[in-house]
Each structure stands twice: as structure tokens, then as C-alpha cells.
């Protein structure tokens, strides 16, 4: 049975139930029940019309769950006025669901969980495993999120930027458990791009595709990080890069630049270089300037300092860095790198060790510790040779 | 979305405001304390922020490897000066501010005289398992 097909139908089936008048929370439960039944029944008895089957079963589950007299009276009225669902309606339903699940009244973690379940069709258990929390905790997070948005009207589009932020969060989470969240984020962004014509949706999709293409090269077999400059570029997924660049170029041609298109442009410039030495750092700095104008995000300024260090030399990078708040995450790691490039190994080693203590991520901490150890070993060897 | 550890100490944290050993509380004060802790965990399950909670015995020993083919060496009981962990709670929250808020509430658990203990808790962020995908 094709689980990808099943999951891709989730949002439009849910949309049909909601348009028929089912409240969102109950409809979402009913669709999950229908998915479980599909997994059980389809291998033996595959339906001819998968979506029709899911709508029928989910609607029946919804009716079964809504037992009170008042609800029955209400649903008899509802069945009477049941609207027909064409392909256009399915697209709109899907889109509305994205907006609902990313509603600004939700916290980031709630929006992520709800999106993965109601739009992505993942089970609560899969989401809990991916985020390393107990299933009961994730179940509560999802049901609270559903309650929070239950009063929101389903017929109004929202701000696409909120949806993109949620998808980007999912993408950045990486993967644990049996669900690859980065791949899932790409699938959901692709599906969104099919429902709405917006250059920033394309920008995010391009960014994800280009980053994802480097995944195999990003970690060594022992799980340690491989920095961009040292990655084996032969292991980059060229097909995914080509697709990302094509999507990006079409988006840029529309002349409505946004944050994600600019980030994707930077990723594309890295992907274009045959070797780290061939990277067009001057153009990357220009894109960072563009990005600073668009977002004025301090993390962007930090990345810009790295790019300046490559384009104009480490001293210029250190000058750019000096203008920034040294409390920024990774500020010390960037300082260490620029000092190393500038030949001041002693300062660099101290800063790498300090950056390792400040790291918020295990792989990054180990990487920075190794950098400090590498420089200390080199300096030790130099001391010995001088004697 | 970040996980934090809230650590409670038998020893080693600064003295609480309401610093009376539990053995000197009234029985109903102990019951109220245990109930508060249970309610706190239940509430966090309800908000979707609970990950884990465990209590530890105050007994234990140091253990270390002692070379190939030899049994591990132990060293105990712990000296009176050793920092001693009493238990922990792990939470998964949206922000550092929220972690602080919850730690503050946990520290307000009632103790002697039914008054909040104002116990010092150690709040420690987890190192995340996976690096962010974007470089």
C-alpha cells in the first residue's frame, strides 16, 4: 500500500469534513481513524477511489463519534446541504488547513505538531518519537492546539509567512524516530507550492531542496559534523540541487524578493562551486546584504561576517564581527574560525574551546572541541620543533 | 521547543528560604507536598510540556573501571560534602522564559508550615541531539 499517497490525501479529506460542517477537532480525529482503517483494509481490498473511500469512512467515523441528540439533529441538516467536492475545492481545503495549523494564536511547538498531524497525516506516536517526548505529552499538545484553533473561521486565508515559518522549523529539526522530518517538510512545502502561487513558498522549497541535497556529505560515518568547506561534493545530490535552482530562478524572475529566496540564493551559490575554493564569496556577501535589508536578523549579520572574512580576508571578517553583539549564538565559534584564518592559532584554540562550552548542540560541541584540540596539538608540535 | 532539566538537590544547592528537614514537617504537610508535586506533573502533561520525572535514593557510590579483567572499583558512601541530587523533572517548552516560570512554580512547593519551600532548583538546557539542517 502506498503510504505516501494516503498521507497526501489527508488534508483534502479533512477539508471536506470541515466544509460539511464538522468541527475541526472532531473531524481531525475522524480522519486519523480513517487512516488507521485504510492501513488495515487497503492491502487486502484496495479502493478504486482512494480519496472517496477516505471521505466516506472518515465521515462515518465522525457521525459515530457525535452521538448526542442535538448533534444528530444538526448532522441530519448537514447531510442535506452537503456540498460537492471538486478538484479546485480540494486545493482550497488543503491551503486553508495549512493556515489553520500555523495560526498565530498557536505556540511554535503546537503549530508544528498540529501541522504534522492534520496536514502531514502522521500519527501522534510518530510525532512524539520525532520530537523525543512521551506520546501522552504529544497527544495533549495536539488536542490543546486543536482547541485553540477551534473557534477560528476556516474560510479565510491567513499570512503565508506564518505557514513558512512552521515548515522551516520542521525542516530544521532533522530526524529521529522513523520519520524523516526534513523530507516531510519538503513534501509539505511542495504540496503547499501546488496550492498557492507565491515566490516565497518557492524560495523556501528551493532552500530546503538545496540543503537537503548536501545531507549525506554533512556528517561523517561516526556522526561527526563535516563543515561545508570539507564536504565531499561528489556526494551532493545534484538532481535535488538542480531542481532547487530551477525553482529559485523562476521565483527570482518574478521580482518579489523575500527572505527565503535570498537564503536559497546563498545556498545555490555554495552548491554551484565545484570546490570550496571556487565559491563566489563576493556575490554571497551581496546576498547577505540583501538579506539584512529584508530581515535585519543578527544571525544573518553573523553569517555575513563569515562571508566577508572569505571575500575580503579574515581581518575584514573580524572587523565586521566586532560590530556585533558577542552574546549571539555561535559568535565565539565564528571569532575562533576567523582568528585561525588570520594565523593567530593561540587565540583561535582558546576561542574554539570557549565556543564548545557555549554550544547548544551535541554534534557542534564535539566539532568545536576537536577544532580546539587540533590547534593545540599543532601548537604543541611547533613548540617541540623549536626546542 | 527545547528540553530542560530541573534538578532538585538533597545537598549542594544554596539553602532554601523555608529550610526545614522533611522529617520535621507535620505528616499532613508531607502529604500536601507530595500532592503538589503530583499535580504539577499532571498539569504539565496536560499542557504537553512533560517529558519525565524521577526521584533518586540519597544512597549511592562512586564507581570506576580498574583495568582489564578486574572488577570495577567502588568508593562510598558519599562524603557529607558531596553535592547530592534528589531527583529531576524534564520539560519540553517553547522558550527559556517558560522554563524559568515552571521552575519557579516547582520551587514554590509547600513545605513546613504549609509555606512554599523556595527551594533552589538547578535549571539546565539539554544539548540538542541533531544540528540544525541549515548551515
Automatic annotation (TrEMBL), chain A:
<dbReference type="Pfam" id="PF08281">
    <property type="entry name" value="Sigma70_r4_2"/>
</dbReference>
<protein>
    <submittedName>
        <fullName>RNA polymerase sigma factor</fullName>
    </submittedName>
</protein>
<dbReference type="InterPro" id="IPR013249">
    <property type="entry name" value="RNA_pol_sigma70_r4_t2"/>
</dbReference>
<keyword id="KW-0805">Transcription regulation</keyword>
<dbReference type="Pfam" id="PF04542">
    <property type="entry name" value="Sigma70_r2"/>
</dbReference>
<comment type="similarity">
    <text>Belongs to the sigma-70 factor family. ECF subfamily.</text>
</comment>
<feature type="domain" description="RNA polymerase sigma factor 70 region 4 type 2">
    <location>
        <begin position="98"/>
        <end position="148"/>
    </location>
</feature>
<feature type="domain" description="RNA polymerase sigma-70 region 2">
    <location>
        <begin position="6"/>
        <end position="69"/>
    </location>
</feature>
<keyword id="KW-0804">Transcription</keyword>
<dbReference type="Pfam" id="PF20239">
    <property type="entry name" value="DUF6596"/>
</dbReference>
<feature type="domain" description="DUF6596">
    <location>
        <begin position="161"/>
        <end position="251"/>
    </location>
</feature>
<dbReference type="InterPro" id="IPR036388">
    <property type="entry name" value="WH-like_DNA-bd_sf"/>
</dbReference>
<dbReference type="InterPro" id="IPR013324">
    <property type="entry name" value="RNA_pol_sigma_r3/r4-like"/>
</dbReference>
<dbReference type="InterPro" id="IPR013325">
    <property type="entry name" value="RNA_pol_sigma_r2"/>
</dbReference>
<dbReference type="InterPro" id="IPR046531">
    <property type="entry name" value="DUF6596"/>
</dbReference>
<keyword id="KW-0731">Sigma factor</keyword>
<dbReference type="InterPro" id="IPR007627">
    <property type="entry name" value="RNA_pol_sigma70_r2"/>
</dbReference>
From TrEMBL, chain B:
<protein>
    <recommendedName>
        <fullName>YCII-related domain-containing protein</fullName>
    </recommendedName>
</protein>
<dbReference type="InterPro" id="IPR011008">
    <property type="entry name" value="Dimeric_a/b-barrel"/>
</dbReference>
<comment type="similarity">
    <text>Belongs to the YciI family.</text>
</comment>
<dbReference type="InterPro" id="IPR005545">
    <property type="entry name" value="YCII"/>
</dbReference>
<dbReference type="Pfam" id="PF03795">
    <property type="entry name" value="YCII"/>
</dbReference>
<feature type="domain" description="YCII-related">
    <location>
        <begin position="17"/>
        <end position="107"/>
    </location>
</feature>
Amino acid at each position: 500500500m502506498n503510504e505516501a499517497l494516503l498521507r497526501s490525501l489527508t488534508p483534502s479529506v479533512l477539508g471536506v469534513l470541515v466544509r460539511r460542517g464538522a468541527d475541526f477537532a472532531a473531524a481531525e480525529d475522524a480522519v486519523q481513524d480513517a487512516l488507521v482503517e485504510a492501513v488495515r483494509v487497503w492491502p487486502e481490498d484496495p479502493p478504486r477511489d482512494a480519496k472517496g473511500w477516505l471521505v466516506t469512512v472518515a465521515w462515518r467515523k465522525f457521525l459515530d463519534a457525535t452521538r448526542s441528540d442535538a448533534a444528530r439533529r444538526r448532522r441530519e441538516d448537514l447531510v442535506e446541504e452537503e456540498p460537492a467536492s471538486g478538484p479546485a475545492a480540494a486545493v482550497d481545503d488543503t491551503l486553508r488547513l495549512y493556515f489553520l495549523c500555523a495560526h498565530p494564536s498557536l505556540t511554535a511547538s503546537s503549530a508544528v505538531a498540529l501541522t504534522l498531524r492534520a496536514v502531514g497525516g502522521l500519527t501522534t506516536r510518530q510525532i512524539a518519537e520525532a520530537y523525543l517526548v512521551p506520546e501522552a505529552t504529544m497527544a495533549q499538545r495536539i488536542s490543546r492546539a486543536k482547541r485553540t484553533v477551534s473557534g477560528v473561521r476556516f474560510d479565510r486565508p491567513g499570512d503565508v509567512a506564518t505557514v513558512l515559518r512552521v515548515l522551516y522549523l520542521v525542516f530544521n529539526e532533522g530526524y529521529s524516530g522513523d520519520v524523516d522530518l526534513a523530507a516531510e517538510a519538503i513534501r509539505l512545502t511542495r504540496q503547499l507550492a501546488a496550492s498557492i502561487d507565491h515566490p516565497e513558498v518557492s524560495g523556501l522549497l528551493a532552500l530546503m531542496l538545496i540543503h537537503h541535497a548536501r545531507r549525506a556529505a554533512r556528517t561523517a560515518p561516526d556522526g561527526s559534523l563535516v563543515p561545508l568547506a570539507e564536504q565531499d561534493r561528489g556526494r551532493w545530490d545534484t538532481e535535488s540541487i538542480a531542481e532547487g535552482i530551477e525553482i529559485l530562478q523562476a521565483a527570482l524572475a518574478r521580482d518579489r524578493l523575500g527572505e527565503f529566496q535570498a537564503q536559497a540564493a546563498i545556498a545555490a551559490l555554495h552548491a554551484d562551486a565545484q570546490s570550496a575554493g571556487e565559491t563566489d564569496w563576493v556575490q554571497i556577501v551581496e546576498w547577505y546584504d540583501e538579506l539584512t535589508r529584508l530581515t535585519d536578523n543578527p544571525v544573518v549579520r553573523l553569517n555575513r561576517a563569515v562571508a566577508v572574512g572569505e571575500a575580503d580576508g579574515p581581518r575584514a571578517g573580524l572587523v565586521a564581527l566586532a560590530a556585533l553583539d558577542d552574546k549571539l549564538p555561535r559568535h565565539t565559534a565564528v571569532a575562533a574560525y576567523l582568528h585561525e584564518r588570520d594565523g593567530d592559532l593561540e587565540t583561535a584554540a582558546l576561542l574554539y574551546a570557549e565556543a564548545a562550552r557555549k554550544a547548544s548542540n551535541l554534534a557542534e560541541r564535539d566539532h568545536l572541541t576537536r577544532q580546539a584540540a587540533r590547534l593545540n596539538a599543532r601548537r604543541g608540535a611547533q613548540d617541540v620543533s623549536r626546542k | 521547543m527545547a528540553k530542560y532539566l530541573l534538578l532538585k538537590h538533597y545537598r549542594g544547592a544554596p539553602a532554601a528560604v523555608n529550610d526545614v528537614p522533611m522529617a520535621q514537617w507535620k505528616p499532613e504537610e508531607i502529604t500536601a507536598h507530595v500532592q503538589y508535586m503530583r499535580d504539577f506533573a499532571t498539569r504539565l502533561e496536560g499542557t504537553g510540556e512533560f517529558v519525565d520525572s524521577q526521584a533518586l535514593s540519597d544512597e549511592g557510590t562512586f564507581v570506576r573501571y580498574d583495568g582489564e579483567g578486574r572488577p570495577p572499583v567502588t568508593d562510598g558512601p558519599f562524603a557529607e560534602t558531596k553535592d547530592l541530587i534528589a531527583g529531576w523533572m524534564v520539560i519540553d517548552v517553547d522558550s527559556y522564559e517558560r522554563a524559568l516560570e515552571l521552575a519557579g512554580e516547582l520551587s514554590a512547593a509547600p513545605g513546613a508550615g504549609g509555606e512554599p519551600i523556595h527551594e533552589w532548583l538547578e535549571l539546565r538546557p539539554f544539548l540538542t541531539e541533531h544540528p540544525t539542517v541549515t548551515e
